[in-house]
Amino acid sequence: MRIVLIVLGVSALLGGVTGCGDDATSDGKLRVVATTVQLGDFARQVGGHRVDVDTLLGAGTDPHDFEPRPSHAEAVAKADVVLRSGGEVDEWLDDLVESAGGDAEVTVVGERIGARGDDPHWWQDPRNVIRAVDLLGRMFDTVPRARAYAEKVRALDAEIARCMESIPPERRKLVTNHDAFGWFAARYDVEVLGSIIPGRSTSAQPSARDVRELVEAIRRERVETIFPESALDQRLEEAVARDAGAKVGEPLYADTLGPTGTYLAALRHDAAAMARGFGGSCDL
To answer: What are phi and psi of 50, to 5 degrees?
Structure first.
């Protein structure tokens, strides 16, 4: 197995580390490994100076096409806590944890907050994030920080809800690269008309029939803007837009956080971009 070979290749680098106790207590911080950039941001916001956070997925990395490196095995072996988002975005973690060793506690955050269903992008609904940061605050013993951050999330959620409500429902129709905004759509009453890549994994390939049916739906519903995602190739989307008589909108941060590296900034950007694409005039 590829992951096993990676770990064996860095056994000397790990230097016999079987856990993280000595490393963690040397600076008094809890060593946290988070699979996704979203979880990494939540852990830093909530944990503050009490945590040292290492995120496995880098900025702009497609989690559906991720291959662990030796440094990831080392981080897992030294961790006190490993935060997994859940679902297919980080299903590779189980093999990595088993092979890397260590005694880290693995918490599947999506499961712990009750984010049920097939769509693993639960952070697209801020109400799930509020539950997640509450969980982290109790794990890290930083409840006041968790509550303060949750208030920021709650305030932005209210702003986005007011913005989307100001746009006529018939204009709130979303077409993206791949199906990653189901939680967002359900929260703000947006209709997901379709996605160019079928399914929720970016590794899937659309058939000619899939593309033709999507183009027809875009024309029928008079969708003016379709949205690319920042981490994906946009050439197919540009072709679909030309055939459908639509334009390509601003890139969205579905699985990444964009240049600012924070969840709140990425969520604000995505909501504002959608609102403009839907013909809205609200200012986020």
So the answer is: -85, -10
Q: What is the pLDDT of residues 125-135, one digit of tens each?
A: 999 999 999 99
pTM to 2 decimal places: 0.87
What are the beta bridge partners of residue 30? 51
Structure-token pair, residue 32 = 């946290």
Burial of 82 (0-12, 13-18, 19+ CB in 10 A): buried
pLDDT tens for each residue of 8-33:
343 333 333 333 344 454 588 999 99
The CA distance from 62 to 256, in Å, is: 8
Structure tokens that stand for 155 in this block: 């305030």
Give me the sign of the Cα torsion angle 206, 253, 267, 127: positive
Within 13 Å of residue 54, how many CA atoms lie on the same side as its CB? Answer: 19
**Residues near 124 by Cβ (< 8 Å), separated by ≥ 6?**
180, 181, 182, 183, 184, 187, 254, 267
Q: Which residue has the tokens 């769509």?
A: 119
**CA 249/CA 230 separation, integer angstroms:** 11
Task: Give CA–CA dist 177/171, Å, rounded.
Answer: 19
